[in-house]
Amino acid sequence: MELPELSKSLADQIKKRQPFPVKSAIILGSGLGDFADSLEETVIIPTSELDGYPATSVVGHSGRVIFGKSDGKPVLAFQGRIHFYEGHDIKLTTLPVWIMKHLGVETVILTNAAGGLNRQFKVGDLMIISDHLNFMFRNPLIGKNPEGFGPRFPDMSDAYAKRLQGIANEVALDQKIKVQTGIYLGLTGPSYETPAEIEMFRRLGADAVGMSTVPEVIQAVWLGIEVLGISCITNMAAGITGEKLSHDEVTETGKLVQKKFTRLIKGILQKC
Ligand code: HPA
Question: How many domains does the chain contain in total?
Fold first, then answer.
């Protein structure tokens, strides 16, 4: 089944259990899934109960679709992503974005764990993504341009909506949460980068690197969904401090920042 039909079938299954309409959604990155625990009136749908949803296999990414209210504001949260490095087609990694479109979502917050390249950054920092570099060298829009959705050649000059970046900065200031702003560079993984690669990416202007988000952003922009991207700097990238990288560190840092991450997201959801 092609993505428009597969996502429609999954959205129809989800609609049967949907408790209220939602206009905002969030995709929770590695180690950031606990945000969902802060929601009220939740309806939790394990993706394993959805016929046709691909199985997730990564530790720290339980696959769940969650409806909930954040201080009264309805939100749809996806816990666990579909990663390209799991062997899926690049198009399939954007399935959650397609599903949310069918459910009427207009704004999405895409979050991820990322390695920091910018030497001003510290482990545990949150970074508002201002733009990206696509080093996955894959584009989910390649192929036929399905009728009735977006244009063949979508503009990407405001992919990370300045309006939402403004809101995120306002909330951060209000709540005295320090945030960074920077460029996210997306790679396929699953191996981490070499120090030489990181030095090259730093010279190219990247502030953080990770293995997700870029295809989802392209798909969301094409579908007309407004995007905010937030990275949690879970580690400094290879060669920056000389320490070795591990997925355990990524998920552990995620846990340490949960509180401020949740506060920031809840604040943003109130305003967007
Ligand atoms: N590199 C790539 N992806 C990542 C990293 C990293 O250092 N940290 C978390 N995700």
Answer: 1
